[in-house]
Amino acid sequence: MFTPMIGRSVIVTGGSKGIGNGIARVFGGAGAKVLVVSRNQEEADAAAAEIRDQGGEASGFAADISTLEGAEAMAAAAMERHGGLDVLCANAGSYPQTTLEEMDVVEWDSVMATNLRSNFVCVKACTPDLKKSDYGRIVLTSSITGPNTGYPGWTHYGASKAGQLGFMRTACMELAKYGITVNAILPGNTLTDSLRALGEDYLKGMAKTVPVGRLGEVEDMGHAALFLASKEAGYINGHSLVVDGGQIVPESQEALDEAR
Questions:
Q1: How far, in Å, CA of 210 to CA of 191, rounded?
Q2: Where would I find the beta strands (DSSP E) of 142-193?
Q3: How many other C-beta atoms can be found within 10 angstroms of the C-beta atom of residue 221?
Q4: Whole-model pTM?
Q5: 129 in any annotated domain
């Protein structure tokens, strides 16, 4: 039985949609006070309202968390609204699909700012407040793409997601003396609105590549983040948790077909 998250102050960046929204809803359902952060205030407010409709406590906040100023404003909002900060879920990310030959420097830098630099500035901005908590938790949303696999058109995305784990491994050492842990979840193919837009045939084809026979739900990622943020996970530090239904395990589709 895990210690309840009731009353814990949690920030979820990129929390208005996709995996971030799943993380925010799971924490809200577990009794945490959730600050849903998005670039868009209306989307952040709508996601927070959904959590409140389900009996949770949440509010929305708009910020560009690829900048230190935006990240500091976000941390200040959590302190003002919740009276403290216990958990940072650094989830914000972008994934335009562009081949290496067609990609320009502007797109590369944009993905790095959203996916990687935002981790640095959010952790930096939140650390002073997390140090005041009786325990501090940082959970990064990386991906299997980059650390474990590759996909055409995502050289920048893969590099940023692998970079998050490099950042994590040193950050977790520097912050451990304050009782703060830093870990990451690595989602596999997950049913988000953008994935659903690719069509039912695509979804069925992707599900066949996963040993458990289905794509992930955003709540699956939320529950993994909730575990790493729990009191009971306090001795887990600097680790990445793959949440992919076994997707990266088979060495070929033939091996998976034979297992079935």
A1: 13
A2: 180-187
A3: 27
A4: 0.96
A5: yes
Contact 54/27 with Cβ under 8 angstroms?
A: no
Does residue 1 lie in a domain region?
A: no
157 catalytic? Reply is yes
Query: CB-based contacts of 93: which residues, under 8 Å, 6+ apart?
Result: 14, 114, 115, 141, 143, 157, 160
**b/e code 64-95 from CB counts within 10 Å (16+ = b):** bbbeeebbbbbbebbbeebeebbbbbbbbbbb
pLDDT of residue 202: 87
Structure tokens that stand for 106 in this block:
């502007």
Q: In the block, which residue shows the tokens 């994935």?
A: 195
How many structural domains comprise the chain?
1
Query: Residue 56: which CATH number?
Result: 3.40.50.720
Distance, in Å, from the CA atom of 202 to the CA atom of 82, rounded to the nearest integer, reads 42
Note the pLDDT tens digit of each residue in 133-163: 988 999 999 999 999 999 999 999 999 999 9
Please check whether residue 112 lies inside any domain of the structure: yes
Q: Which of 135, 157, 202, 235 is catalytic?
A: 157
Residue 50 is part of which domain span?
A: 9-259
Q: Is residue 135 part of a domain?
A: yes
Q: Hey, what are 58's tokens?
A: 């949440």
pLDDT score recorded for residue 256: 84
